[in-house]
Write a structure and sequence with these properties.
With 289 residues, the chain is α+β, with helices and mostly antiparallel strands. It folds into three domains: 69 residues, SH3 Domains (SH3 type barrels, Roll), CATH 2.30.30.40; 64 residues, SH3 type barrels; 141 residues, endopeptidase fold (from Nostoc punctiforme). Helix content is 15%, strand content 36%. It has four helices and 22 strands. Strand 20 and strand 21 form a beta hairpin. 35% of the residues are buried.
Length: 289
Amino acid sequence: MKYALVNATLASLRKEPDRYSELVDENFYGRKVEILKDDALEWFFVKTEYRYTGYVHKSQLIIGERLLQMWDKYAKMIVIQAYADVLDQPKIQGFRITSLTRGALVAVLDYDEENGWVKIALCDGRNGYIKRGFLADYITDAFFIDNYYNRGTKETEDALRKSVVEAALSYLGTQYRWGGKSPLGIDCSGLCSVAYLLNGVIIYRDSAIMPGFPIHEVPYEAMKTADLLYFPGHIAMYIGEDRYVHATAKSGSDGVVINSLNPCDPDYREDLPEKITAVGSLFYSDGCE
């Protein structure tokens, strides 16, 4: 198997090896992808860590066995700021090397806690500095499984539900972008999947409950915060008190908004509640196996 690292602020995954082809997904800086095919002059056909596939332009990836080994060796942090500049020195007057979006991974070299900077390595070997408040510890899917599924408690479930909802709400006001998954633009399944990804959980990228991924169907009556509402071709996240957050292209919304399931509320959308096909949850609610 051959792997590469995303070496662009966002790597565009396209349906076909053509820059004008449909955007099916975006992947973040520093993320590893598996190269499945290299049969186009300028494109790789890749699979992401969350098992999504598409064509990525070679200019957005970096390959090299030694580089990948070095990258795997470093401790990682994840960017949680919507946009974060990487500077060549630990002061705001520094030269901007690049900018990263929420979800990007960086390798940690050193901390300057007193002044609030972290020295990082980029995946192409360059070093830079980023504000400590723009980063969080990187939680892997394996860490999540070990600490929640194997040793989880009611308290850890509640905390995780709250954190997932907060991650989704951090995109409020973001424009709708088909195939998007960043603060520059995001679609409905991108919003839900990235909210979980930021918490170390890999769920299916599209608006469906798929075997092999941790989301399972639960009764509507058992729905809790951070559970997912499925519609034909659409997905939303329940945030409590009859409300849900979603990315919608509906005229007048055009992005990430909150709507209500209650017909008495002013933000009720009458076209969606009647179309709910399933409720999905990462968690096992009372009465559900």
